[in-house]
Amino acid sequence: MSQKFQELIQSERPVLIDFFATWCQPCKVQSSVLNSVKEQVGEKARIVKIDVDQFPSIASENGVRGVPTLAIFKKGELLWKESGVHDVNSLVGLLEQYSS
C-alpha cells in the first residue's frame, strides 16, 4: 500500500486524503461532508480515504496523530494538512485553489 500511496499522491490533480478510523464519530461526519465536496469538485480533484487502523505505517509516515486528519497532495508534495472536521466550502475552496 505504501508504494501505491506514493503513486497516488504523484497525481497532476490535487488528491485529498482523509485519514480516518471506523470507530471515530467525527470521521463519520467528515465522510458525509466529503461526499458533498466530491459532488462539487468533480474531476478537478480526487478524494481518497485511508483507515489508520488498517494502514498505520502510512498514517505515521504522514504525521497523523489524530483522526480525522485531512491532507492535500499534488505531484507528491504535501500542500495542506489539518486535523479535525472541516466544512464543505473551505475544502472545496482549497481544492479549487490547488487545482488551478
Structure commentary:
The protein has 4 helices and 4 strands, in the order H-E-H-E-H-E-E-H. It has one domain (3-99): 3-Layer(aba) Sandwich (Glutaredoxin). The protein has helices spanning 2-9, 25-41, 56-61, 88-99; strands at residues 15-20, 46-51, 69-74, 77-83. With 100 residues, the chain is of the alpha+beta class. The N and C termini lie far apart (28 Å). GO terms for molecular function: protein-disulfide reductase activity. Residues 1-100 form the Thioredoxin domain.
Count of β-strands: 4
Write down the Rg: 12 Å
Order of helices and strands: HEHEHEEH
Number of domains: 1
> Distance N terminus to C terminus?
28 Å
Which residues sit in consecutive blocks of at least 5 with pLDDT less than 50? none
CATH class term: Alpha Beta
Average residue-wise pLDDT: 96
CATH architecture type = 3-Layer(aba) Sandwich
InterPro entries: Thioredoxin, Thioredoxin-like_sf, Thioredoxin_domain
GO molecular function: protein-disulfide reductase activity
Pfam families: Thioredoxin
Organism: Epilithonimonas hungarica
